[in-house]
Design a protein that fits this description.
single chain; 6-PGluconate_DH-like_C_sf; N-(1-d-carboxylethyl)-l-norvaline Dehydrogenase, domain 2; 8 strands; 2 domains; 12% strand; EC 1.1.-.-; oxidoreductase; Rossmann fold; binds ligand FVH
Length: 292
């Protein structure tokens, strides 16, 4: 029954900021939880909240079939599981990895008799256990494993399964975070432009946030153009017009005493695409220049 799924007993390895947040949601939901952390002191508060604290990672792994890991990086997964018997275990790895590391880890787990699901967390710790915050976790690898544990895994945050390829959760995770860094870079440049002026950054912030939200749906048109191969489809502001505007951005940066180093790489790609004769296109052609 759903109730049985919700009360699945599980083990969590790694009680950093994220692991601790995850642990609290399972404890609050009444799941029997065994935890282990390299630095035992980090488990003390959770023990007071009802977690069973194992003396070793191997003991924690032996305690349950479902094992969730949330460690710093892929190398720490090796260190933590070195002595553990993974036979018959359902391993869910929420540690940030590259797609290649996730695929290798899936094979590594299979060789040790475990089933494997990789996860990429699209949330920061305060979003965990707060459904309205919109955080979720990408999962990839065994679909059967995902379906079996989806109720338990859905307690800390939403779940989005992205395919049998164990590397896909990490790939989606890194893709979205890469886009986020592009957004942060743009916002950094915008704040730099007004830094020395009598403009309150707190006044610019809501304008910036609203503008980024208004522009974000453009990714749907990009996807549509990539699928059709027609980069002129639905174009509103063509590449030729946009490249013609770039000197304005660079001159403004210079006048404001701001380095153009965040803008330049993208503008250079736009210029290269234009030089290939793609002036009537959208910005989508830049993607083809990036793919080696
Ligand atoms: N926190 C965040 O904002 C992001 C949000 C998106 C997902 N990431 C990823 O989640 C993984 C864990 O991140 P975290 O925030 O919990 O990180 P820390 O607070 O630094 O805790 C790290 C835990 O890993 C343990 N650990 C590190 N190295 C080893 C090792 N060699 N052997 C055993 N355990 C290790 C560490 O143990 P300790 O320092 O307390 O002894 C913590 O439990 C991560 O992949 C993020 O990219 C978080």
């Amino acid at each position: 029954t759903q109730n049985t799924v919700e009360k699945t007993s599980l083990t969590l390895l790694g009680l950093g900021a994220m692991g601790t947040a995850l642990a609290r949601t399972w404890l609050s939901a009444g799941h029997p939880l065994t935890v282990w952390n390299r630095t035992p002191a980090r488990a003390a508060a959770l023990a007071a909240e009802g977690a069973r604290v194992a003396d070793s990672a191997a003991e924690a792994v032996a305690a349950n079939t479902l094992i969730v890991m949330c460690l710093l990086d892929d190398a720490s997964v090796d260190e933590v599981l070195v002595d553990a018997d993974l036979t018959g275990r359902d391993l869910v790895n929420l540690t940030t990895s590259t797609p290649a590391q996730a695929r290798t880890r899936a094979e590594w787990a299979r060789e040790r008799g475990a089933r494997y699901l990789d996860g990429g967390i699209m949330a920061v710790p305060p979003m965990i256990g707060v459904p309205e915050a919109g955080g979720y976790v990408f999962y990839s690898g065994s679909r059967e494993l995902f379906e079996r544990h989806r109720g338990t895994l859905g307690i800390p945050a939403g779940t989005t399964y992205v395919g049998e390829d164990a590397g896909f959760a990490a790939l989606h995770d890194v893709a979205l975070l890469s886009a986020m860094y592009g957004m942060f870079a743009g916002a950094a440049h915008a704040f730099a432009l007004i830094r020395k002026e009598d403009i309150d950054p707190a006044a610019l912030a809501p304008l910036l946030a609203d503008w980024l939200v208004a522009m974000a749906p453009a990714v749907h048109q990009t996807a549509d153009q990539l699928r059709s191969g027609d980069y002129t489809k639905g174009v509103v502001s063509n590449l030729a017009m946009q490249v013609a505007g770039t000197p304005t951005f660079l001159s403004t940066a210079e006048q404001q005493g701001v380095s153009p180093e965040l803008l330049n790489p993208y503008f250079e790609l736009m210029g290269r695409r234009l030089a290939e004769g793609s002036g009537e296109e959208d910005l989508t052609g830049v993607i083809d220049l990036l793919v080696r």
